[in-house]
Amino acid sequence: MTTTQTAPKQNGIESGGPIRFSSRLKEGRALAQDVWSIYNAVNLPPDCLNLGQGYMNFAPPLWIREAAEEALRTVPANHYSHPKGRLRLREALKKHYEADFGRTLDAETEILVTSGANEGQYSVFVAFLEHGDEVILFEPFFDQYLPSVTFNGGVPVYVPLHPRTAGVDKPTGHDWKMDVDELRRAITPRTKMIVLNTPHNPVGKVFTRTEVEAIADIAKEFNLLVMSDEVYECLVFDGEEHVRIATLPGMWERTVTVGSAGKSFAATGWRVGWLIGPESIIKPTLAASTRIVFCSNSPLQEAAAAGLELSKAHNFFPTQTKEYAERREVLIKVFDDLGMKYTLPQGSYFVLLDISDLDIPDDYPFPESLNGRGRDFKWVFPSTRPPCSIFSPHSPRACWFMAMEIGVSSIPVSEFYCEEHRNIGEAYARFAFCKDIDTMHAAAERLKNLSKHLKKKQI
Ligand SMILES: Cc1ncc(COP(=O)(O)O)c(C=O)c1O
């Protein structure tokens, strides 16, 4: 007798075979279709301009790529590196950061090279979380935090930033407010960590000194570890101050700062990042990272080191910031001309467009994959917003609509919130301006066509 085996369902998800996969995949939303795969080139019109995903459509400068080629021509750079990272890169990071941190950094014990910021952050969670430990995430949050926390037994606790933009003519990242009392109320005896991200993805907020001090005070009061994700540290505009929480009194010993060659040098595919912190944090994290990747990509560590070593000679970071500011300008000008509201970013490379005024036909054809997603995927906002549980069966999906009709993709900000708080992000679409200036101009030309889809203003 033959038996036909049907693939078992786990947590309502087809496992695809007879072997059960770990339930941790479900908890971290890891098996849900993520927003990036819905809004990628496969699903969108072939000529759609991609301002959705946050990677560049340009390469690192030639002199950095040449350093990568040079590294490949040597024997050692084709082989394993020390799990701490290549000495040349650790020395370059030491030199680059010492003044900013206002202290001497030990390249042997206080700097760890990782396979992108993401792996570094994952390794910190592996090293420090016990089952049931709570991790504070400010919403909206970079989506990788969630599975990285839950895979390691952690419990995310969400503290939303609130867009206090009503009545503000030209909102900026500063108008997304952190409520210190709300943060304090979120702390329990199980709280282990706070994840701070400044400059912030997706809001573009650069946390003020007062805000960072408030977070530091709470971390000290409750003996918490702070993971300060500063991957956009080199993209701060308008003379804003980037405050490193690690530099505040009493914070060095409880803070790990995260950086990324991907963001710093327009090299997201290199997978080179770094962590800076006291030995008490770096040592256990190194133990975790060594088990996960053993070591990071050798030749591109050499190239990242060259990037840091030669950055001053090439006036690289100021030039790069200026170029990003020009790209930002192209995007915000078109929104200004359209009379649409957006959040002016003080850092990072994202603009949040307020899509409340988009008027989209009720019968517009939307794909199944958008069902059950936040309303910024599909909602047209009435002047008074409905409670977040109400979905209109006819409501169009704004980001999808813009991609299909305007030819510019964006990402719905509700995806960066937990279910309970999704309604906060539903009024916004995130546009990334990490694209070359010609692409930004082309996108702006297309975005002008949004004028045909704006609700008539009541006079
Ligand atoms: C806030 C934030 N942190 C970390 C990362 C990951 O950086 P990396 O590509 O170096 O892993 C990203 C990437 O988009 C990000 O936006």
Description:
- The structure is a single chain.
- With 459 residues, this protein is of the alpha/beta class.
- The protein has 2 domains: 161 residues, Alpha-Beta Complex (Aspartate Aminotransferase, domain 1); 242 residues, 3-Layer(aba) Sandwich (Aspartate Aminotransferase, domain 2), CATH 3.40.640.
- It is built from 15 helices and 17 strands.
- The protein has a 7-stranded mixed sheet, with helices on both faces. It has a 4-stranded antiparallel sheet with strand order 13-14-17-16, with helices on one face.
- Helix 4 packs parallel to helix 11.
- The longest helix is centred in the C-terminal third of the chain and has 23 residues.
- It binds pyridoxal-5'-phosphate (PLP).
Can you describe this structure in just a few lines?
It is built from 15 helices and 17 strands. The protein has 459 residues and is an alpha/beta fold. Belongs to the class-I pyridoxal-phosphate-dependent aminotransferase family.
